[in-house]
Amino acid sequence: MSAFWAPDGRALADFYAAALGWEVTAEHKDDDGNSLATLISDGHATYVFHTARHFRAPNWPADELPFHLDLAFDDVEAAERRLIELGATKPAHQPGGAHWAVLLDPSGQPFCLSATPERA
Fold it and tell me: What is the three-class DSSP state of 68?
């Protein structure tokens, strides 16, 4: 299980669930009904998204990243358009050239898009 922090864990979980075609499988709330953690899964892997009210996205590319996701798609250009429609943004700094693209998720954290290995 991998964990991610964001100002709104539920919103980030919804973004990645839509991006990956996964399902929200659980949500844990505090006594006031505020989302604390939301889980998404494809039935094999699970990601948990924590609400961290004081979260600040890294100042990428200046800051080193403790981790990031690499997502592979058959049609990278179509995936990029869809992810931007879902709320991702594309920063000007693109170190991958024609090999991969960098997007920022709605919380400002970078992730990479590349072709599935059989299409690379």
Answer: coil
Contacts of 3 (CB under 8 A, 6+ apart): 47, 48, 49, 50
List pLDDT tens digits, range 35-53.
Answer: 999 999 999 999 999 999 8
In 3D space, the residue among 75, 65, 74 whose CA is nearest the CA of residue 105 turns out to be 65
Q: How far apart are the first and last CA of the chain?
A: 27
Dihedral sign, Cα of residue 87, residue 98, residue 70, residue 21: positive
Distance (Å, whole) CA 27 – CA 11: 12
**Separation between Cα atoms, residue 112 and residue 95, nearest integer Å:** 10
